[in-house]
Amino acid sequence: MRARIVRGEGGAPIRTILEHNYVRPTGSTISLKNRAAFPWEARDEARLMWISEADFRVHSYMAQPFRMEFDLSDGSTLTYIPDLERITDSDVEICEVKRNADEAKRNPDYGFKLYLAKRVCALRGWKFSIISAEDEIRQEPLLSNARRVRYHRLTQLQSLDYLRLGQAAAPKEGRLTWGEAVAVLGGRDDPWNVNGFAKLCAMIVRRHVCVDLSLPLAPTRLVIPAEYLRAADR
Predict the structure, then answer these.
(1) What is the pTM of this model?
(2) What sections of 20-158 are H helices per DSSP?
(3) In sequence order, which residues have a C-beta less than 8 Å from that of residue 90 and are 6 or more positions away?
């Protein structure tokens, strides 16, 4: 078997929804993290992009990132396009989104393509993940948190906002609570301040602040500025 990876021109997605006639819901999502708009062909794909937008571990991501072409010994060629490519702190992760863990097993021919894709990814040192929407995407409060954080991604931030947060974090060795960060960024002694909440969410998308999105975004939730995490990794 021979395999090729073909990427879109200029690093763009290899395929867009405009190339297909779909009767199911499709659309696009705008990413501040990547400064681009990406197509989605299923709602769970869009939801995974929302999570990736807010996940501190994800440096960047792309939908429909490339096409794998497999030349088989019988002369036939199989093609496969993954749903998402994510660059994380430790991996290049190639993602295939399915409703549940069993969906990928129902079609043997499709399962064979996923097997080949996994082999190619392993040879390149990439991680190949079949992501179950039921188990890994439609989980609460993760999905609701990601939706709330992403909603405020375009909130404008000024140098003073970063300075205020840094000054508040320094005496606490970078371990602020959500309420403390919101109050500081809002310029008021109010852990529920709307402007402060929006600015903190925008900082999360920009990877300036890390928070565990799998836990409720309560005023007591721990938030850590990125510089303290990087210092701990040295």
Answers:
(1) 0.93
(2) 43-54, 108-123, 142-151
(3) none
